[in-house]
């Protein structure tokens, strides 16, 4: 079965406000501050233009962004519509057929754009900074404001994951944008446009659903060992992608599978499922499983009724602490001589109360069947060992 190609891109969007800050007596530069709450947007992977992306973003923000009137003259002035001094090397006048080179030049030119004062202040600043970088000759290209506001309320900028550094300005040239699922986008607002069109109160306003104040239904934080055994022995219907090959009709058919217990051993080992795996995630299961320390009756689960009644007593527990990446194993075991429980943690051994035995860390359970003959043989062997003299062999 073929995997479907991803046709959508998902990436976060930051809101930033462009503010002017004074860096010298006659020169100011742009500072961008984050505001509001970020968005998550999904866009088509192919044939996405600047205008189409802008419209998608505007649709997402319809609730708290107000469009200005057509004759209001509002719009976020982009750098090419402001009077600016752009310093570029002479070799940038040469045309290049390489699209990647063009993008790098555009990005470099964009990063060198500064917002300046009037022409007299520009001349003063030029004369003051004329001796800088004398090794490279540079041309002055003056971009005059066209006198018409931009049709967009904000500019689109690719940024780093924190939204604090510019990477590349997106170009409105009707060409498809080159975006990936690892992109981070910023909407750069002019302060005046933001003040008039962006409603901070509506943007951060939220409506609490009645379910927020309701206490969530408590999950069953404890299940019994008997429930686990019944689920293990229940009939399971195989999925459509997991058919069973029938030897009679020589075809794959949908079927059911079921485990049955015919007989049980003297020492019963129960392995609890503590790790869950699927196609998307894996996790450690910390559900508390309640298990009896004495008289675990397995009669209802065994088919062969001719065997001795399968009733078991717990003699040991293996515990696992930690998660999927690593952990630590300990054990509880019952001493057959003094009938007390002990904890084994690496080289440390200490006595514990039987109330501590049942815990969320229980991983493997060890049960011993109650058998008169078996118990008597164990007791006889113990007594014989206690009467044995040093050096005596049996």
Automatic annotation (TrEMBL):
InterPro entries recorded: Papain-like_cys_pep_sf, Peptidase_C19_UCH, Ub_carboxyl-term_hydrolase, USP, USP_CS
Keyword Protease set for record: yes
Polar residues: bias regions: 127-138
One Pfam family here: UCH
Documented EC number(s): 3.4.19.12
Catalyzed reactions per annotation: Thiol-dependent hydrolysis of ester, thioester, amide, peptide and isopeptide bonds formed by the C-terminal Gly of ubiquitin (a 76-residue protein attached to proteins as an intracellular targeting signal)
Gene Ontology annotations of biological process type: protein deubiquitination; proteolysis
Domain USP: 1-370
Record field: compositional bias (Acidic residues): 81-104
Molecular function terms, GO-annotated: cysteine-type deubiquitinase activity
Region (Disordered): 72-141
Entries under Gene3D superfamilies matching the protein: Cysteine proteinases
Hydrolase among keywords: yes
Sorted UniProt keywords: Hydrolase, Protease, Thiol protease, Ubl conjugation pathway
Annotated family: Belongs to the peptidase C19 family.
Entry protein name: ubiquitinyl hydrolase 1
Naturally occurring in which organism (per UniProt): Desmophyllum pertusum
Gene: USP15_2
């Amino acid at each position: 079965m073929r995997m479907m190609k991803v046709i959508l891109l998902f990436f976060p969007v930051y809101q930033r406000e462009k503010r002017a800050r004074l860096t010298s007596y006659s020169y100011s530069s742009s500072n961008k501050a984050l505001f509001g709450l970020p968005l998550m947007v999904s866009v088509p992977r192919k044939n996405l233009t600047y205008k189409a992306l802008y419209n998608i973003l505007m649709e997402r923000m319809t609730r708290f962004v107000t469009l200005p009137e057509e004759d209001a003259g509002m719009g976020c002035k982009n750098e090419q519509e402001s009077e600016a001094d752009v310093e570029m090397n002479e070799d940038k006048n040469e045309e290049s057929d390489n699209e990647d080179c063009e993008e790098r030049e555009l990005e470099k030119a964009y990063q060198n754009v500064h917002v300046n004062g009037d022409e007299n202040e520009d001349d003063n600043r030029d004369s003051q900074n004329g001796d800088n970088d004398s090794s490279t000759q540079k041309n002055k290209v003056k971009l005059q404001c066209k006198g018409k506001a931009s049709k967009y309320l904000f500019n689109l900028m690719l940024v780093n994951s924190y939204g604090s550094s510019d990477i590349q300005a997106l170009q409105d040239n009707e060409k498809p944008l080159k975006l990936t699922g690892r992109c981070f986008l910023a909407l750069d607002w002019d302060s005046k446009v933001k003040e008039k069109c962006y409603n901070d109160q509506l943007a951060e306003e939220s409506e609490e659903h009645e379910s927020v104040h309701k206490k969530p239904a408590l999950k069953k934080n404890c299940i019994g060992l008997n429930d686990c055994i019944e689920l293990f022995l229940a009939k399971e219907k195989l999925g459509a992608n997991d058919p069973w090959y029938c030897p009679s009709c020589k075809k794959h058919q949908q079927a059911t599978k079921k485990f049955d217990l015919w007989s049980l051993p003297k020492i019963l080992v129960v392995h609890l499922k503590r790790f869950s795996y699927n196609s998307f995630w894996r996790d450690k299961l910390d559900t508390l499983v309640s298990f009896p320390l004495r008289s675990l009756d397995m009669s209802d689960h065994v088919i062969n009724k001719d065997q001795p009644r399968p009733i078991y007593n717990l003699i040991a527990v293996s515990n696992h602490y930690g998660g999927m990446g690593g952990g630590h194993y300990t054990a509880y075991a019952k001493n057959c001589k003094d009938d007390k429980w002990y904890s084994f943690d690496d080289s440390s051994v200490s006595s514990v109360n039987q109330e501590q035995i049942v815990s969320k860390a229980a991983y493997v359970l060890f049960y011993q069947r109650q058998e008169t003959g078996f118990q008597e043989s164990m007791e006889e062997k113990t007594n014989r060992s206690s009467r044995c003299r040093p050096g005596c062999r049996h």
